[in-house]
Design brief:
- It is a single chain.
- The chain has three helices and 30 strands.
- It is globular, with a radius of gyration of 34 Å.
- By secondary structure, the chain is mainly beta.
- It folds into two domains: 5-106, no CATH class; 152-530, Porin.
- The protein has an 18-stranded antiparallel barrel. It has a three-stranded mixed beta sheet with strand order 2-1-3.
- The longest helix has 13 residues, at 5-17.
Length: 531
C-alpha cells in the first residue's frame, strides 16, 4: 500500500524536536510511493525503548544491510533517558552510525570493574583509632587550644631480620648468625603531625646479637634499650590555624628529635642525628616549578667516617639543603659545616651538587658532585677530597626490568659529613657489590669509601612472575689512582622472594679478585619479617 504521508510528517517533527531518535533495526519490507523517491523508505519495525526496556512498533528507515539479530535502542528523551546496554553481532559501518548508536557505544557500564585483583591488606600488629588507610567515616576528633583538630591514630610496626652468612675478605674470614629488630610506635595526630619512637634492641654501634663461629666461636650480645629514633614533625599552620589569616606566609614544616637524615642519596649524610630541621616548600625561585629549602642543626649522635664509622661525641652539624624542580630536571644543592666534638682538628665543610633527569624518554641519570674540606687538618673521620658519582639506568622494551651502570671518581680523601655505624661507605648506592648489608660484619665485595680511586658497576635487575621475585646480577671493579696495589674486580648476584605478605627471603653471593691479596668471597641468606 502507499506510504502514509501524515505519519511521515509526524515522524520528521519528532526527529527535529529531539523526542525520538531512530537507529537501524530489523524490519518488514514495504513499498515506496513514487512521490517519496528521494526520501528513505520507511518500514514498520520493532524497537526497544530505553526508558522502559519494552518493545514497540515504529516506522523506521529501511536498513541498507541485512537485518541485525539484536535490536538496538531508541532514545526517547535524552534529557531523562540513558541508553541501555545491548550487543550487536556485526558492527555498523561508519556511514550507518546514528547518534543513538554513538551514545550507546560510549555509555558507561553500570557494573563496577576493579582495576586489579588486590590481596587484602594485612593487619597491623597493634592499632587504635581510625583504620590504617581504611575506608569509611573518619572520627570527628577534638579541638586543642590552638584551634587545630586532632584525630589520634596509633599503630605499631617494624621489621625483624635473621641472617646466616660467611664472608672472607682475603685476610679475615667471618661466619656468623646475626639478628636485628627494628620496632616503631607511630602516633598520628593529623595528616601532617605525628610522633614516632623506634628501638633497635638487638644491635648497637654496628654490633649484633647472635652467634659467631669464625674467626672465634662465641656468642654475640648487643641487647640494649636505647632509643634509636624519637622525633615529632608537623606544619606550623596546621598546629596554629589562625596563622593562615596572617599576611606573612608561614607555611613552614619542621621536625625535632632523633631522626634519620639522608642527603645526596646518602653520599653527603646517612645517619640518625639528634637535630631540628625547618623546611619551606612551594617556593618558585629561579623559574622552578617548586623550590624546597631546609635548614638543619644537629647536636648529638653524629657518626663520622668512610666505612668504619664511629661516634664523634660533642660534634655539632649545621646544614642548608635546597631542591629545585623543573619540567624535566631536579637539582639539589647542599652544604654543611661540622664542628668537631672531643676529637681534635676535625672541623669540616661539605658541599654537594646533584641532578636527576631523563634523556630521550628512556635513559634515567643521576649525577652527584661532592667536595669535603678538612679545615683543621685530616684524620680518619674527616678528610679533604672530591667524589663524582654517576648513575645511568633504563628499562628494556617489553619488560619491567632494570639495566644500570654506575660509575665514580674519587680524588684524594673525600669524607661524608655524617655516616651511621651501619651505613657503610659513601658509595653504597653504586650497587650490591658496594652496599653495606646493615646486618652483622658482612662487608661489601668492593671498597665503598671512594677515596682516591675510580671504578663502577654494571648490573641487571630481572623481575620474575608477579614481580614478587627478583634476581640481580652485577659485575664491578675499581683501581687506586695513586698506583698502589688495590685494584679489584668482583661479580655478585642476589635473589629476593616475597611471600605470605609479611616475609622476604634474600640469598646473595659474591666473589672478588684482588690484586696482591687472596680471592675474597661472601655468601649470605636473610629472612625478613615485616609487621
Amino acid at each position: 500500500m502507499p506510504f502514509p504521508r501524515k505519519a511521515f510528517l509526524i515522524l520528521c517533527a519528532s526527529l527535529l524536536s529531539g523526542i525520538v531518535t531512530p537507529t537501524y533495526l530489523s524490519a518488514d519490507d514495504d513499498s515506496k510511493s513514487s512521490e517519496e523517491a528521494d526520501s528513505p523508505k520507511m518500514v514498520k519495525g520493532t524497537v526497544i525503548l530505553a526508558s522502559t526496556g519494552k518493545n514497540a512498533e515504529h516506522l523506521i528507515p529501511e536498513p541498507k544491510r541485512p537485518p541485525i539479530p539484536e535490536a538496538p535502542i531508541i532514545q526517547e528523551d535524552p534529557s531523562i533517558d540513558s541508553p541501555s546496554r545491548s550487543t550487536v553481532s556485526a558492527p555498523l559501518t561508519r556511514s550507518e552510525r546514528s547518534v543513538v548508536t554513538r551514545i550507546h557505544n560510549s555509555a558507561l557500564l553500570e557494573e563496577a570493574v576493579p582495576l586489579a585483583e588486590l590481596p587484602e591488606r594485612p593487619g597491623l600488629l597493634l592499632s587504635f583509632g581510625d583504620p590504617f588507610f581504611g575506608p569509611g567515616p573518619i572520627d570527628d576528633g577534638f579541638e586543642i587550644p590552638t584551634g587545630a583538630i586532632w584525630n589520634p591514630q596509633f599503630f605499631i610496626f617494624g621489621t625483624y631480620s635473621t641472617a646466616l652468612q660467611t664472608f672472607d675478605s682475603g685476610t679475615v674470614k667471618t661466619t656468623e648468625w646475626v639478628n636485628a629488630l627494628d620496632l616503631y610506635a607511630n602516633l598520628n595526630l593529623t595528616p601532617t603531625e605525628r610522633l614516632l619512637i623506634g628501638f633497635a634492641p638487638l644491635d648497637k654501634d654496628g654490633n649484633f646479637t647472635g652467634y659467631q663461629w669464625e674467626p672465634e666461636s662465641e656468642g654475640l650480645d648487643a641487647l640494649n634499650g636505647n632509643i634509636e629514633v624519637l622525633f615529632f614533625e608537623g606544619r606550623l599552620t596546621s598546629l596554629f590555624p589562625g596563622l593562615l589569616d596572617s599576611s606573612a606566609n608561614l607555611n613552614f614544616d619542621f621536625s625535632i628529635g632523633r631522626q634519620p637524615i639522608l642527603y645526596q642519596d646518602g653520599i653527603l649524610i646517612d645517619d640518625n642525628i639528634d637535630s631540628i630541621g625547618i623546611t619551606r616548600t612551594n617556593l618558585f625561585w629561579l623559574g622552578s616549578s617548586s623550590t624546597t629549602i631546609t635548614t638543619l642543626w644537629g647536636w648529638n649522635e653524629i657518626d663520622r667516617g668512610t666505612g668504619m664509622n664511629t661516634d664523634d661525641p660533642g660534634a655539632n652539624l649545621l646544614g642548608l639543603f635546597t631542591q629545585w624542580n623543573y619540567d624535566d630536571l631536579q637539582i639539589q644543592f647542599d652544604t654543611t659545616y661540622v664542628f668537631a666534638g672531643h676529637s681534635e682538628n676535625s672541623d669540616g665543610v661539605n658541599i654537594s651538587l646533584g641532578a636527576n633527569t631523563r634523556f630521550g624518554g628512556w635513559l634515567n641519570t643521576t649525577t652527584s658532585l661532592n667536595q669535603s674540606i678538612a679545615t683543621d687538618g685530616e684524620n680518619d673521620q674527616n678528610g679533604t677530597g672530591t667524589l663524582i658519582f654517576n648513575q645511568f639506568s633504563m628499562q628494556p622494551s617489553y619488560t619491567v626490568d632494570n639495566v644500570y651502570l654506575n660509575a665514580f671518581l674519587g680524588i684524594d680523601d673525600y669524607t661524608s659529613a655524617a655516616r651511621g655505624a651501619n651505613s657503610g661507605g659513601p658509595l653504597a648506592q653504586a650497587g650490591i657489590l658496594f652496599a653495606a648489608t646493615g646486618l652483622g660484619t658482612f662487608g661489601p665485595a668492593l671498597d665503598a669509601s671512594g677515596q682516591n680511586m675510580v671504578g663502577g658497576a654494571l648490573g641487571y635487575q630481572h623481575f620474575i612472575g608477579d614481580i614478587n621475585q627478583q634476581i640481580i646480577g652485577e659485575i664491578g671493579g675499581q683501581t687506586n689512582l695513586s698506583g698502589e696495589s688495590e685494584s679489584a674486580f668482583a661479580t655478585g648476584a642476589e635473589y629476593v622472594l616475597g611471600f605470605w605478605q609479611h616475609f622476604v627471603f634474600t640469598l646473595g653471593a659474591s666473589v672478588t679478585f684482588q690484586e696482591d691479596l687472596d680471592t675474597a668471597y661472601g655468601l649470605r641468606s636473610v629472612l625478613t619479617y615485616s609487621y
